[in-house]
Amino acid sequence: MFNAFTVNDLALVDQKPANSAGKTLADFQTFLNDANSTGRPIRSRSGCGECRRRKLGIECVWRQPGTERKNTKRRKSQAIKVRVSSIEKTSGFSPTHTLIDTLRTNVELPAKYEPQVNVFSLPFICHLSDTESRYLDYYINYVSATLSLLPQETNYLLSLYIPLAVHNKAILNGLIGWSGLFLAGTKSEETPMKYIQNAVDLCDKTLKSDTLTISDKLELVCLFFILCAAEICVGDVKNWYDIFGRLYKFILNECNGNLKTLLGLLGDTEGAKWLLSNFLYHDVLSSSSHEKGTLFPIDQYCEALNIIPGTTQLMDSSSVCDPLQGCVRPMFVLLGQIINTRNKLDKMQEDLNIIKDRDSYRQKRFEFLTTLEQDFEELETRIKNTNPHTPSLLLLKDDKELEDHLTLFEIYKLSLRIYLRYMMRKTPPALPEIQLMLQELTLCMDVIMDTNVQSGLCFALMVAGISCVDPVDREQMEARLRSFSSKFPVKNFELVLILIRKAWELNKDGSQCVNWFDISESMGWYLSLA
């Protein structure tokens, strides 16, 4: 089904986590409540070694930087060194597993990944109450880790949001409220909602300002995403999309519809690029986008994020590693292409239906069917040939993590191949072609249940669920989702089960193609599968 790689194969050599990773929750709580803490390292009162020598009357000799160890015998490193050129050639692998050859030719391997910010060295606000401190601890140590597919020291949910929260009260309130809602699992808790409302009020106040700096714009975009995430995590099906719509209008007004311009307006940093990647993620996983098309053209996302949408393969060469998408981001880009291609074909079908002349109708229908088949074959080829986002794989620390991430990528390949048939050809799920892929898909899913990458399964579970026709498959899928929902705190998985049950009611024998987003609309939902 798929081949496992070792860490050495990917040249993941001698990678070490950030120093902050070793801190415990108790250590951080002490740090957070220490009024004298500045986050700066402590310096000896006696000065450096050379200064102490000078105080003792010994001549202080200045050494030019880089020459200090010139005449000193170096200790031999115990780390295993792997030359990329010495890795054996791979052969016979599926397109997904040509990673080693891809890395050898296209990717410059870093010796070690440096996190953007050491969260635990930041100067925190000292006047937080006990409740605020507990919620912030919970966000840093649990919420961000639960949602992220990638290691914590590379997680923008920490390295971007936490520094901003130090001086931006709206973001601080948003994170505290999000953490409280995540912990409670419901919006009925008064305390978290108070912080969410404070964040919304401060956001509205900032938006009324006549002049917004680059920092103001960056912080507003971050705040919108925090508020969206807080709503999605408790299973909201309306408010999150209202907030997302406000964010879309804000971006549209700022960049005049050009996403590449937006990066400059946000400072053109790695954090700004991740925010754009995050917008793509929420856009393609919104039920509204599946019905009407994505808010921005996929080509604009690709241009801004350095993704090459080739005719036979999509190449994601972006340096930004998205904690919510991991190595799967190329598949989400392809999902956006499927959505927009279907939207284009629907418009062609509508134009076809109003043609009265029989000869003109026949000609236009031939053009429509030809376009449909060409688009289908092109997208199918891209899905089969596209590789994972390799920089994200380079961050992983052991073979088990690597296997889980590659399995998640295979899950999305299978999900997109099934979904492509639903969206383009309106294939009924009962056909053997769909059922064969479903069997492989569910086997892969069971492999990564209860692992660190399970948070990325929402869309795939929806596709697998509506594809189940056999009573045994449906029973097992319901049990799988029940078990998952009971363990995983994000509530939109429970909404997925509700929609899947509705699809089964409407399509008892699997002879029809039923769209999950049509069911969502009929229930008055704006569902996010993020």
From TrEMBL:
Entry annotated with the keyword Nucleus: yes
Listed GO MF terms: DNA-binding transcription factor activity; transcription cis-regulatory region binding
One CC-aspect GO term: nucleus
UniProtKB keywords: Nucleus
Statement: the UniProt record of this protein carries the keyword S-adenosyl-L-methionine: no
Record GO biological process: positive regulation of transcription by RNA polymerase II
InterPro entries the UniProt entry points to: Fun_TF
Localization annotation: Nucleus
PANTHER family: TRANSCRIPTIONAL ACTIVATOR PROTEIN UGA3
Protein name: Uncharacterized protein
Taxonomy of the source species: Eukaryota, Fungi, Dikarya, Ascomycota, Saccharomycotina
